[in-house]
Amino acid sequence: MAKRNNEHLSIQDALKEFVETNKLEKGLDKVNVADAWASLMGNGVNNYTASVNLERQTLYVQLTSSVLREELSYGKQKIINMLNEELGKEIIKKLVLR
Questions:
Q1: pLDDT at site 29
Q2: Average pLDDT, stretch 64-89?
Q3: I need a labelling partner for 36 at 20 to 30 A (CA). Which of 49, 50, 58, 66 fits?
Q4: Which contacts (CB < 8 Å, 24+ apart) does range 69-78 have?
Q5: In this structure, which CATH number among 1.10.1750, 2.60.40, 3.40.390, 3.30.300 belongs to the domain 29-97?
Q6: Is the confidence at residue 66, as pLDDT, over 80?
Q7: What residue segments make up the domains of the chain, in order of their start?
Q8: Cα 90 to Cα 81: distance, rounded to the nearest angstrom
Q9: Does residue 2 register a pLDDT over 70?
Q10: pLDDT tens for residues 35-44?
């Protein structure tokens, strides 16, 4: 049975402790990266985005438009910086557009 703390914890602290104890941070990062991509890129890019996957520190984005892929490839580092800023920590080191 889990250890019970007698002191009062805020919900935020309790959730952080739960995530750390159960090693769920990597899974949450994958979900958060996909959500950040959707919010930052907007509907124009999201309509042509087939999948967004985070593996280790590389973000793989599959696009259905070769023209859009070429345009986004010019600003890879800017996209990485924007996503990391949105997430609040440096999760992404490399971006691969497919």
A1: 85
A2: 94
A3: 66
A4: 69/97, 69/98, 72/45, 72/97, 73/97
A5: 3.30.300
A6: yes
A7: 29-97
A8: 8
A9: no
A10: 999 999 989 9
